[in-house]
From TrEMBL, chain A:
GO terms for molecular function: tryptophan synthase activity. Keywords: Amino-acid biosynthesis, Aromatic amino acid biosynthesis, Lyase, Tryptophan biosynthesis. Belongs to the TrpA family. Its EC number is 4.2.1.20. It comes from the Bacteria. It catalyses: (1S,2R)-1-C-(indol-3-yl)glycerol 3-phosphate + L-serine = D-glyceraldehyde 3-phosphate + L-tryptophan + H2O. SUPFAM superfamilies: Ribulose-phoshate binding barrel. This is Tryptophan synthase alpha chain. Tetramer of two alpha and two beta chains. The active site is at E54, D65. It comes from Enhygromyxa salina. The keyword Transmembrane helix does not apply.
TrEMBL record, chain B:
Its EC number is 4.2.1.20. Residues 61-384 form the Tryptophan synthase beta chain-like PALP domain. The keyword Zinc does not apply. The lineage of its organism: Bacteria, Pseudomonadati, Myxococcota, Polyangia, Nannocystales. Tetramer of two alpha and two beta chains. Keywords: Amino-acid biosynthesis, Aromatic amino acid biosynthesis, Lyase, Pyridoxal phosphate, Tryptophan biosynthesis. The gene is trpB. One of its GO terms (molecular function) is tryptophan synthase activity. Pathway: Amino-acid biosynthesis; L-tryptophan biosynthesis; L-tryptophan from chorismate: step 5/5. This is Tryptophan synthase beta chain. HAMAP family: Trp_synth_beta (MF_00133). Its cofactor is pyridoxal 5'-phosphate. PROSITE patterns: TRP_SYNTHASE_BETA (PS00168). Gene3D superfamilies: 3.40.50.1100.
Length: 272, 422
């Protein structure tokens, strides 16, 4: 268990709070467009100021994602992406950034498949994730009703279980989600897929975030459709973190320096 | 198939053992929960039942007849073969039974917009038809590959007033159309109902679609008792997602003497490209359900292949996986060539041109008669008619008739040229 740093996520949120700003959670799809260029992009993004890395596992049928991330997953799979390969990228990032929280984003099937294939089952797989330097899991198609198959072994292995709250979730569901979550709660900003157009100043979103704040002590991250520094600036005072995904994937298509400058612009906006 | 470690068994949601469940994004969960809550109430409501039955009777044309097939039986070595004629329904297949019920439910829930996915176009046409009947806007997602292969059905849907949206992503076939329909539903869940076309997807869809297709089995069971004087020895149906099979099986589940036999598509053969989820699939989570799926070691879905677009799907309804696991149903695989031969045989012996999907079930009859004996009573769900498949079949089965058409065309243009010279 060398390199195990329990609480990297909590520590980073505390740091950001002390600096009087929101954390920047940056999403990139592993292996997009291939192993080498993905690694270069990941390192550049983290160097440029991503506070929490959300590393996406490519999936053949990403039903919750919009066109930008779908295309990234297609590129990644065409380049031979596998869960093991993406975990290899995670451990390379971990070598360079000892304190950076890494959250693995995935659809359920690749993870459940890995659990089935691990001699020690889901517990064994989750323990290995932890050893490789992963800090949390964000599984988009495991709502609370279905989450126990992976959540319990993840928690047992010391991984945080990131809960997803939707604008459509009624109060009873929100309470269940935040009670099951650890690390942070991810507020989905809009009723739609990733990368959709977002009005960051909408009253409904403000009310949604305020309501969520009343339900949990955990840090709250908001994401889906956040592309511009102005949106980060508008959201930062209301939350503990802002998630940017499709926009980083798009910037990453032009290589590490373009991506890094996009990250720097977004990071500068986190002071609100 | 790998044994599931105990710590990955899901909580019971849906009634299909380890299969089923609701594996969808949180944004959709409230809508899925609403369906799960409201469907049993609607289905138990006499007024809802009365309207569903009335439309099936006066619009769809139910009950569909049971037709004996003695010349087919003679050609395959015996058996008493009876065909449940879902091909005679309005729009030419069993799909419309489900669409009528789901659109009625959508209206009851105050939804004002309907979306659907389609592979060959049969479910899309049935959904577009019912939306026209009720005056509801309808969007149908269809893989771009399928749009190209099924131009006639695309035109039918547009004529019926539906918007057809081609899906270029992934393999541009049925599974990608489902992905895109799910994305539309996530974005428009407040006013939109997604009419899933088979016994698949998140709970309650597999149960709801079964309930709506069960009319096939209920009618057929009564017709068997009336016409054959007994229950059949076996009920045979083709399986893609599995709705026509579940619909006819459902009425016979509690008749232990009746064998239930599903027939899936072996495509170019089980060692090549196929859609044989039961034979070659493994447990996975996909399109909102836990079931058997065709996937690689890394949990990525594989592209299915069948000559019949309706069976060209890498998953299967969770109830089928459960029926097989508990030994209540068994599943055979029939390849493209066998299906084509069966389509041709039924056409010539009984004057019925079946859909390519249905032809898979028909192709299984000869080995079943050999196994069960020449006195065996076999009930087959004739799930759809073959008009939509004529272009595919002509290319594969009857190059001669294509050549005949070409010669006639050449002759007629020569004649015209000759006339012009006078």
């Amino acid at each position: 268990m060398s390199g195990s740093h329990p609480g990297r996520i909590a520590a980073r949120f505390a740091d950001c709070r002390a600096q009087g700003r929101a954390a920047l959670v940056g999403y990139l799809t592993g292996f997009d467009p291939d192993h080498e260029r993905s690694l270069a992009n990941l390192l550049a993004a983290c160097e440029a100021g991503v506070d929490v890395l959300e590393l996406g596992v490519p999936f053949s049928d990403p039903t919750a994602d919009g066109p930008e991330i779908q295309a990234a997953m297609v590129r990644a799979l065409a380049a031979g992406a596998s869960l093991e390969g993406v975990l290899g990228l995670a451990s390379r990032v971990r070598e360079r950034f000892a304190e950076l929280p890494i959250v693995l984003f995935s659809y359920a099937n690749p993870l459940l498949r890995a659990c089935d294939r691990d001699p020690a089952g889901a517990r064994g797989f989750c323990a290995r994730l932890r050893e490789l330097g992963v800090d949390g899991l964000l599984v988009v198609d495991l709502p609370p009703e279905q989450a126990s198959i992976l959540r319990a072994p993840a928690i047992a292995a010391g991984l945080d279980w990131i809960g997803l709250c939707a604008p459509t979730s009624p109060p009873a569901r929100l309470n269940k989600i935040v009670n099951d979550a650890s690390g942070f709660v991810y507020a989905v900003s809009l009723t739609g897929v990733t990368g959709s157009a977002l009005d960051a100043d909408s009253e409904a979103l403000r009310a949604q975030l305020e309501d969520l704040r009343g339900r949990t002590q955990l840090p709250i991250a908001v994401g889906f459709g956040v592309r511009e520094p102005a949106q980060v600036q508008a959201l930062a005072p209301q939350v503990d973190a802002v998630v940017v995904g499709s926009a980083l994937v798009q910037a990453g298509r032009d290589g590490p320096s373009s991506l890094a400058s996009r990250v720097a612009d977004l990071r500068a906006a986190t002071t609100g | 198939m790998p044994v599931q470690p105990p710590d990955t068994s899901p909580p019971a949601l849906g009634d299909f053992g380890q299969f089923g469940g609701r594996y969808v994004a949180e944004t959709l969960m409230p809508a899925v929960e609403q369906l799960a809550r409201e469907w049993p109430i609607a289905w138990a409501d006499e007024a809802f039942q009365a309207e569903y039955s009335r439309i099936l009777s006066e619009y769809v044309g139910r009950p569909s007849p049971l037709t004996p097939a003695p010349r087919l039986a003679a050609a395959i070595g015996g058996g008493q073969i009876w065909l449940k004629r879902e091909d005679l329904n309005h729009t030419g297949a069993h799909k419309i039974n489900n669409c009528v019920g789901q659109v009625l439910l959508a209206r009851r829930l105050g939804k004002t917009r309907i979306i659907a996915e389609t592979g060959a176009g049969q479910h899309g046409v049935a959904t577009a038809t019912v939306c026209a009947y009720f005056g509801l806007p309808c969007v149908v997602y269809m893989g771009a590959e399928d749009v190209a292969r099924q131009a006639l059905n695309v035109f039918r849907m547009r004529l019926l007033g539906a918007e057809v949206r081609p899906v270029e992503a992934g393999s541009a076939t049925l599974k990608d159309a489902i992905n895109e329909a799910l994305r539309d539903w996530v974005a428009n869940v407040a006013d939109t109902h997604y009419v899933i076309g088979s016994v698949m997807g998140p709970d309650p869809y597999p149960s709801m679609v079964r309930d709506l297709q069960r009319v096939i089995g209920d009618e057929a069971r009564a017709q068997c008792l009336d016409r054959m004087g007994s229950l059949p020895d076996a009920v045979v149906a083709c399986v893609g997602g599995g709705s026509n099979a579940i619909g006819i099986f459902a009425a016979f589940l509690d008749d232990p003497g009746v064998q239930l036999i599903g027939v899936e598509a072996a495509g170019e053969g089980l060692e090549g490209r196929h859609a044989a989820t039961m034979s070659r699939g493994e447990v996975g989570v996909y399109h909102g359900m836990r079931s058997l799926v065709l996937q690689n070691d890394d949990g990525q879905l594989q592209e299915a292949h069948s000559i019949s677009a309706g069976l060209d799907y890498p998953g299967i309804g969770p109830e089928h996986a459960h029926l097989r696991e508990r030994g209540r149903a068994r599943y055979l695989a029939i390849d493209d060539e066998q299906a084509l031969a069966a389509l041709s045989l039924l056409s010539r012996t009984e004057g019925i041109i079946p859909a390519l999907e249905t032809a898979h079930a028909l192709a299984a009859l000869e080995p079943l008669v050999a196994e069960l004996g020449p006195q065996a009573k076999l009930l087959v769900n004739l799930s759809g008619r073959g008009d939509k498949d004529m272009h595919t079949v002509m290319g594969r089965l009857d190059a001669e008739s294509l050549a005949l058409v070409e010669r006639a065309r050449a002759h007629s243009s020569q004649a015209q040229a000759g006339q012009g010279g006078q």
